[in-house]
Amino acid sequence: MKNADLDLYTDYLLSTFGAATATGLSAMVDGEVSHDRITRFLARQDFTSKDLWQKVKPEVRAVEDETGVLIFDDTIQEKAWTDENELMCWHWDHVAGRNVRGINLLNALYHVKGRSIPVAFELVKKPIQYSDLQTHQLKRRSEVTKNELLREMVNTCINNDLKFCFVLMDSWFSAAENFDFITARGRHFIAALKDNRLFAVSEQDKKNGRYRRVEDLNLPGQTVARGWLKGYTKEVLVVRQVFTNKDGSTGRLHLVCSDLTCDYDAIAATYQKRWQVEVFHKSLKSNANLAKSPTQTLRTQSNHVFLAICATFKLECLSAKNKLNPFALCRKLLINATRTAYAQLLLLQAAA
User: Fold this and answer.
1) Using CA of residue 97, residue 103, residue 104, residue 109, what is the dihedral sign?
2) Rg (CA), the chain
3) How many whole angstroms separate alpha carbon 332 and alpha carbon 44?
4) Helices marked H in the chain — which ranges?
């Protein structure tokens, strides 16, 4: 990896407010770096999660401790007009409630002491094409599931000696196989549950197959239910959070925790940290120009995503040092760029 080219490209992603092109980068440095050099850099090799770990490892080692949490979530960057391939293809977007064409990215974010650092990532690729028997449409599917990717990433983080106590996940990843995998490796999990998950409040109920939906559990106030999820052999804790939505309606969130020593407050406070991955994804899209690259090949598209993640990490480091959130930092850059453009405009008007 050429650090000079990587640093230049990530600086460019944080500085540009339009399309992120090799020509635009070359123009930013007055041609000192040619656009051909940048194009070759993007196409030279495949940047992977291992490269990301080497990039962030010194910063992680400086802040990590046993109170850290590992947060998993995926995000979709829609790119409706880019040619389809195994990376740039159709994915179900649970936020939009429909299939969208774009890039599906699974991230592992390490959060400790107020810092959020990406430590692993995987791009969801769908290389297998098949014809749907009902619609006769040509579709794509992955060779591995996102749950399998999550387990591989957890294992990689443990092998990298990353210090963390909990894995935090939304309901998409709250599968018994994931729970078994995490606890078998000496870590705990807190995950969201869908309301229809089945729960037994006693060992006798479990033996007799008497399960109830978690939404029907009697959980007054900030109480904890101890019991067994159907399909998962170990005892767990379940809590219910009740909150008010922006429109005034009441929402409920059920959480499951493998650490039987936790109380309601500990579970709720720990899971609240999962929101940091949403902030990271917003910064990745808004501040690091994830969607604004016109790259066309599988390798260059994948590498641009990697470099956007590196740019977001760089911005987070600057944010910590300057005690200013990443969005305020980028707003400051935009204001300075606007002032410079305005000054140039006044000079042109004066010369005319």
Assistant:
1) negative
2) 23
3) 34
4) 3-15, 22-28, 35-44, 49-63, 146-159, 176-184, 203-207, 264-272, 275-286, 298-322, 326-351
Domain positions in the chain are 171-273
Q: What is the pLDDT of residue 1?
A: 43
Residue 77 one-letter amino acid: Q
Distance CA(11)–CA(288), nearest Å, equals: 9
Other CB atoms within 10 Å distance of the CB of residue 1? 12
Going along 150-261, which residue ranges are E strands?
166-169, 188-193, 198-200, 212-213, 224-229, 236-244, 250-257
Token couple for 299: 């390798």
Q: How far is Cα 44 from Cα 299, in angstroms, rounded to an integer? A: 9
Q: How far is CA 294 from the centre of its chain?
A: 22
pTM: predicted TM-score of the whole model, two decimal places: 0.94
Structure tokens at 116: 């959020």
* Nearest-angstrom CA–CA distance, 346 and 352: 10
| Percent of all residues in the chain with a pLDDT value above 90, rounded to a whole number | 88
- Classify 12 as helix, strand or coil: helix
